[in-house]
Amino acid sequence: MSQPGAKYLFIGVGGMGMAPLSGWLAQSGETVLGYDDNLQEPVRRFLESSGVQVKDFVFPETVAQCGTVVYSSAVAAQHPLIQAAKAAGVTCLRRGELLAQIAASKRFVAIAGSHGKTTTTGMVAHLLKRHGVSANYILGGLFSDGSLPPSVYSDSPWLIAEVDESDGTIEGFRPESSVLLNIDWDHADRYTEASHSEAAFFGLLTRTQSKVFLPMELKQSSLQLAEGVTVSTYGEGADYAVGLRDDGRLELGAAFQEQVIEAPAVGRFNQTNGAAALAVCAQWIECLDPEALSSFPGIDRRQSVLFQDASSLVVEDYAHHPTEIRALIECLRSLQPEHQLTVVFQAHRYSRTKQFKEAFAQVLAGADRVCLLPVYSAHEAVVEGGRTEDLQAAFSSQVETIRMDLAGVSALRDLVAGDAQRTVAFVGAGDLEHFAELYASMCAEAFDPKAAWFRFVADQVSPDCRLSESEPLANKTTLRVGGSAYLYAEPANLSDLRALIRAADLFDLPVFYLGRGSNLLVPDEGFPGLVIRFHAKDWRQVEVLDDSRIWVAAGARLKEICGQAAKAGLSGFEFLEGIPGSVGGALRMNAGAMGSWMFDVVERVQYLDADGRYQDLPKEAFHFGYRKVEEISRGVALGAILRSACVEDEDSIRNRMVDYSNSRKASQPRDPSAGCIFKNPEGNFAGKLIDEHGVKGMQVGAAEVSGVHGNFIVNRGGATAADVIELVRQVRRVIFEKSGYTLEPEVLLMGKAWEDVLNESVSTPELS
Prior knowledge:
The protein is of the alpha/beta class. The chain folds into six domains: 8-96, 3-Layer(aba) Sandwich (Rossmann fold); 104-295, UDP-N-acetylmuramoyl-L-alanine:D-glutamate ligase, CATH 3.40.1190.10; 305-447, Protein-Tyrosine Phosphatase, Chain A (Alpha-Beta Complex); 450-537, Uridine Diphospho-n-acetylenolpyruvylglucosamine Reductase, domain 2; 541-665, Uridine Diphospho-n-acetylenolpyruvylglucosamine Reductase, domain 3 (2-Layer Sandwich); 669-758, Alpha-Beta Complex (Uridine Diphospho-n-acetylenolpyruvylglucosamine Reductase, domain 1), CATH 3.90.78. Helices cover 30% and strands 23% of the residues. The chain is built from 23 helices and 42 strands. Strand 30 (592-593) and strand 31 (596-597) form a beta hairpin. The longest helix has 19 residues, at 721-739. The radius of gyration is 31 Å and the shape is elongated. Residues 761-768 have low confidence and may be disordered.
């Protein structure tokens, strides 16, 4: 969680601009920490293989220990970690600013343009690799087949990287050579007019020191370049001539030896990108073999074919600008002209949607049907006129448009139904790729939801994430009763957890989060969804932060917290010693004992809220009370920072722990139980009422009201959940009849509501 002496901390390290750059730095020998609250597993694998130390939790208190903080432009400048770094005097750089600093020390080849940067940079990297030429490169994406990493460090003085114009950092680059692919107006949040974005691109060319590569349509005699800078064109009829033949192959000429080669992928843009990549590589490679381009595997999410059979084609593409989408639709129409074409479109950013909604509607009208997903905000606030309903209103009445949610199997069934030959394209730069993968799996003739779920999840979680089906749950609870989970998982880290939650949403599965199972009753029929248990090592961390605070992860045992705190001389946690639970459950229910409550010692809580957003909030932000915390009960707790009442010597703390432990042993049963079974009614105590009215010792099957403490139901061996539920029902009846009090169960009933299971309506009478 903390790493003294780390030179770089990357905030938002999972982004496709950030991950390759941080990986390159780590490969170069720098100490690099990476933090992202929504990291995906393929990216995590690359980061860790590069030497980046990936952290699921980084707190403002530890940021000052790093030398430089690097952050994605998608991360708001008001982010607590950035604010803490600036307050501590730590250097803070945007991703493009750091890349510009690195590029200044290299012979830098910049790949720029509104689209195609990642594909072109990837083509250059691929060609250099195939020819055995060593060079540094930094992409903004993953190779589709994983054949190359997205960045490579080399002792070579050359560096090839894409330069992003979206946040203005393009102005900090002075390349040796520049490749400009196109200048379509984009990023309306920064460039309010097309001329402004063009000026940013042409400014890069004026700062270029040696050579500029331009497509034929962008060659301008009026372009003012530095003295001695040469200009070469690429593409059809250019200095480096590459044309697209009717058979889909590429025809080379002019500066290239005349020949015909196989194209690496379909699409007009890849003709342009390939021409640019070949032109650049011709400067390095004396005997360039252009045919090597044909084996280029492509970049992930660029015209990725997810499923294909005799009647169906399913593709997913990152296109998020009208020009890109038009090219994609033309390509798909040419590939399968007899197919019905459905485009499932997710607009990227509200500002871009507002800017291009008419253009989007015009190009998407080239499909037979358009399904509109919610706009992917990319952390941008809602912009009036840029919502999905505004985009839908821009379509003519002749175009069939359907609004869809990213809701999973239920939302996709209509797309799968029907006998027509079809092409379905999932298009956009948001988070629709998982939606697309699910649809592709549903196109198989025999769709088995469970098998599809395992296939879907397998590539998205770490090898250490445990997955199973029909997993017995009784042995994972302290009461030792109940059935099995339909699906079961033990995530190894936060990335795994997010992937599992995402998969459950897509497959319409209910989710239950399990800790030590100490306040839980599992029905005999089990749970019909996904049970996620916080049992892996990373979820059981306990770390002392300073002389008053301790950080604890969701799966940490409360008893372990007490031991670590005592060792550090932090008092105030002793009451947790005998509660047989874990942090996540204690936070969710505000667990208490010996007159103290969990939120008495909470300073901040890290959790995923009801919408799946990561939150790190002070305890004042929560509505907590007796056995419930509203916000956490609708989401899932990940961990918490706890504050000690005071510093004290270890012996005194441990003596209190022993006293509390002895008190519990004397007053609570040792047989398997779920802890207190009933909440204390207002003005009284459940255990006292049970004791006074002779309910101790009542039995149903092997479930028994404890003779030691009346508010415990114990398992004498072989009890079933049905036994416990019936015993709860009988105890409630007796207590109500004899005292007028209605006892409400405190123990959670997995997947069910107690009022439904008990099936009785009991109203509390007025007491005299």
